[in-house]
Write a structure and sequence with these properties.
Number of helices: 5
Oligomer: single chain
Shape: elongated
CATH topology: Four Helix Bundle (Hemerythrin (Met), subunit A)
CATH class: Mainly Alpha
Largest sheet: none
Length: 115
Amino acid sequence: MEQEVLNRGIISELRDMGDDFLKEITEKFFEDADADIAALRKHIEKGEGREIGIAAHGLKGTSLTMGAETLAGIAFEIETKGKANNLNALDEDLQRLERSYYEVRQALQRALEGE
């Protein structure tokens, strides 16, 4: 069974706080995630393990808040590698993370539309 892109229970809890709240927190998540992914890309290119860990840690936290558990898991993998300065295969990990983030964005857009 394929894991859901978003934890529906968390989205439901966020929606219970009001549609405006869900929209606001989603927009903030998009801003933060875009910035974190851009930072990850830059730090991976430069081989900056500590900074990779910091950026991935931020993305992990915001992803969990939004119910994007798969995305958070990939961010955790990257965070762990970055903090250990294990830079092998991070390009592939970043590609997986970006694909997962795309799916999360689509799912959150649908959630905002009430689907």
